[in-house]
Structure formats: C-alpha cells, structure tokens
Design brief:
Largest sheet: 6 strands, antiparallel, barrel
CATH topology of the largest domain: OB fold (Dihydrolipoamide Acetyltransferase, E2P)
Number of helices: 6
Distance between the termini: 23 Å
CATH class of the largest domain: Mainly Beta
Helix content: 40-55%
Radius of gyration: 36 Å
Shape: elongated
Structural class: alpha+beta
Strand content: 15-25%
CATH superfamily of the largest domain: RNA polymerase II/Efflux pump adaptor protein, barrel-sandwich hybrid domain
CATH architecture of the largest domain: Beta Barrel
Number of strands: 13
Number of domains: 3
Order of helices and strands: HHEEEEHHEEEEEEEEHEH
Strand order of the largest sheet: 1-9-12-11-10-13
Length: 330
C-alpha cells in the first residue's frame, strides 16, 4: 500500500510538471515537491498505522483439549476416525467395562449384607425392648442391639456412597466428546491401555465452536485499539474474500517483563522490548468461522474510533490483499 501511495504521488508529479506545467522543472521546485511528498506520505502512513493498523500475524485460534479418561483400562472400541466431525456427547472410545461392572455387583452385595444385619439388629432390639419392659432382659442387651442397628445403618450409607462411585466409574468407561470438534492424529486402537493420569492423554480433541482470530500488534500500533472496534480479516486460504469481525479482547501483557521467584536478581540488557500485544477478534460469520482450520493464517485490520477518514486506506489494502491471494495461495 505504501508503494501504491508513492505511485499516486509520482503520478501527481507528472501532472504538475509535465502535463499541466504548473511548476517549472528547476532543482529547487523538484526538491521542494519531493520533500513535501515525503512529509505527506510519512504523515499519512503514521496516521494510517495508528488509527487502522494492519497485522499479518493472524491465525484461527482453537482450544485443544487433552482427552484423559476418568478411569483406567484396556480400550475395546474406537468408533471414530481422525478429523471426523463430532458433536458434544459422541463416543470417542470405550474402555473394558467388566472390572467396573464387577465392582458394582460387589458393592451391591455389601449393601444387601448390611441391610440384612440391620434387619437382624432391629428384630433383636425390638425383642430386647419388650423383655426389658417385663424385666426379663438387661438394659445392656437393648443398648447393644440398638448400637448394632446404628452400625448397620452407617454401613448401608457408606455402601450406597461406594455404589454411586462404582456406577459412575462404570459410566466413565464410555469416553465422550466434551463439545463439538474433531480428533487430530488419532493413534488410539482397541487393545491400548489408557490411564487417568493427566500427563498421559489418549488423544487431542480440537474444539470447533470458537470464532476467534488471534493476532498481535506492536505496542505502538495497539495503543488506540479497544474492545468493540470493528475489523476486517483476510485468510490466505480464502483468497478474494474479506470477513468482518469485532475486537473482543486485548491481552496487554508480555513475557519479557515477567518476574519469577528465584534466587537470582533480574539483569537489564538495555535491548529494546519487542513484546507484542495479543488481540482477539471474533468473526461475524459463525458458519465460516466454524469451518476454518485451526491455525489458518490471516491478515487483520482493526478500525479504531479515531482517524476514521484514513480507515479507507486499510479497507482498500485489505481488499487488495484478498485478491492478491490468488497469486500466492497454493
């Protein structure tokens, strides 16, 4: 775009000096004309970059969820394929449920035993209560059977809690998609052993319900950018198309300035800080956003609330970039 502005000013030179002859071709006039041109072009570029900055560091932002099952075991079925479009709740894989089904039956048996003990304790307590009334049994016998009944009640409550956990573990042998998305680099096969250790994820699940484009700007270019500013986005894989969006978040932090607890003092090198601010742009077209691949490269222009007359420069530049994409797209 800078070259285009320079060519326009060069065309103005031809008109002024050659076509209309408004100025004579003297050294002084040519130097003055060139100097004024440099100043005008510099001013236009400064205002342009300040009030409607453009970044070529855009990409489609996707969350990647490591799929870690809540239970361990041997995989018996993987009904999906890599990159298959999935909805929330679709089955990703199944773990052998037999050990967990056995655990459920064991706990159920323990609960039945505790209930039987409670019934026995209640029967003996009722009998002891009647005998105590006619002074045919000691109060200690009644107290003993009352305590046994309370112990059985506690055992039943504990068993029901264990049963709920065992049933939950049995249900967790079916691992489902946490949201809409797809699995990349699917290597899991029946016979593999998976664990519930977070560091050993079974697959990477890419979420596709995000319409966010992540880009970055220098700190000087981002100083006028605010949440709610409109934006244009051009994807290199979609030449000829320009998509609208809006700024949803500005991450004004940098890794070069963070301090971590340590036993050493920070050293200052004198080198200029080159941290860039991250800016998130949400696309207006949700359908297009959902169909774009993770990491799709993009050029992003943001139109701030200032200098609106120069926004047209970025609008023209973005559409030129979109059509020039046919020359560079694979």
């Amino acid at each position: 775009m800078i070259a285009f502005i320079s060519l326009c000013y060069a065309g103005l030179y031809v008109l002024v000096f050659n076509v209309f002859g408004l100025l004579k071709k003297t050294t002084a006039n040519i130097c003055a004309f060139a100097g004024v041109g440099v100043a005008i072009i510099a001013a236009v570029i400064f205002v342009w970059y300040t009030y409607s900055p453009i970044s070529q560091d855009g990409r489609i932002f996707r969350y990647v969820i490591p799929i870690v099952p809540n239970v361990s075991g041997q995989v018996v079925e993987v009904p999906i394929t890599g990159l298959q479009t999935l909805d929330k709740g679709d089955v990703l894989f199944r773990i052998d449920p037999q050990p967990y089904a056995i655990a459920v039956r064991q706990v159920e048996a323990q609960i039945e035993r505790s209930r039987a003990e409670w019934r026995l304790a209640k029967t003996n307590r009722d009998r002891a209560e009647r005998l105590v009334k006619v002074q045919s049994a000691a109060q200690a016998d009644l107290d003993t059977w009352t305590a046994n009944m309370e112990v059985a009640e506690a055992s039943i409550a504990a068993g029901e809690a264990q049963l709920a956990n065992a049933q939950w573990q049995l249900e967790e042998t079916v691992v489902r998609a946490p949201t809409a998305g797809h699995v990349v680099n699917l290597q899991l096969r029946p016979g593999s052993f998976v664990t519930s250790v977070p560091m050993a994820s079974s697959m990477a699940f890419v979420v596709t319900d995000s319409e966010t484009v992540l880009t970055s700007y220098s700190q000087s270019a981002a100083r006028k950018v605010a949440v709610g500013d409109s934006a244009d986005v051009v994807f290199r894989g979609r030449p000829g198309e320009t998509f609208g969006g809006v700024v949803t978040r500005i991450v004004a932090v940098g890794g070069q300035s963070q301090l971590a607890a340590s036993g050493t003092l920070p050293s200052m090198t004198g080198a200029p800080v080159t941290d860039r601010w991250a800016v998130m742009v949400e696309l207006d077209d949700k359908d297009v956003a959902g169909n774009l691949e993770q990491g799709a490269a993009a050029t992003v222009a943001i139109y701030t609330q200032f200098g609106k007359p120069v926004h047209v420069i970025s609008k023209v530049a973005m559409r030129m970039s979109a059509w020039l994409g046919y020359l560079t797209a694979p």
